[in-house]
Amino acid sequence: MKTIILSIFTVIISLFSLQANAQDRLSKNNYVVLTSKIPQLKPILLTADALEQEDGNNYGDFQIIICGKTVEDLKNKDLMHDFIHKAEAQKVKIVVCGFSLKKFKIDENEIPEELEVVPNGILYDFQLQKKGYRSLAL
User: At CB < 8 A and 24+ separation, what contacts does 111-118 make?
Assistant: First the structure.
């Protein structure tokens, strides 16, 4: 009997802990920007920096999704170096649409390894929106 009561008590405490963690994540301001142009990375990163300053402790996650023909530019490692370095310094995640890579016949090995590839960038954007991310498409 003591074991059952102790087990129930442990489950209840665990549920309250999970709920508190979920509420903490929801209280953060999370952002995602979908872009089809590499030059837009500069103002997007400036925006991420400004939002981090403005949000303070409420700043959460910031992700950039790159889709469309511009994925061809990702092969230019010199062009991408500064963007990747700045994004890493700001803890901004750059994600690449795998569907776009396939469409424009770009091998994942041709793009910088710091970039994460997702199967479908548009779907990924919607999935983040369902998690409460504020979204902007450029």
Answer: 111/71, 111/74, 111/75, 111/80, 112/74, 112/77, 112/80, 112/81, 112/84, 114/84, 114/88, 115/66, 115/74, 115/80, 115/84, 118/65
Stronger pLDDT, 67 or 19, i.e. the higher one: 67
Domain ranges in the chain? 28-137
Find tokens 């910088």 and name the residue: 112
Please check whether residue 95 is in contact with residue 64, taking contact to mean a CB–CB distance below 8 angstroms.
yes
Structure tokens at 78: 């010199």
For the chain, give the percent of residues with pLDDT over 90: 80
Distance of CA 120 to the CA centre of its chain: 13
SS3 95: strand
Question: Does pLDDT of 123 surpass 80?
Answer: yes
Q: Does domain 28-137 have CATH number 1.10.720.60?
A: no
Q: What would the two tokens of residue 70 be?
A: 């511009």
pLDDT tens sequence across 39-82: 999 999 999 999 999 999 999 999 999 999 999 999 998 999 99
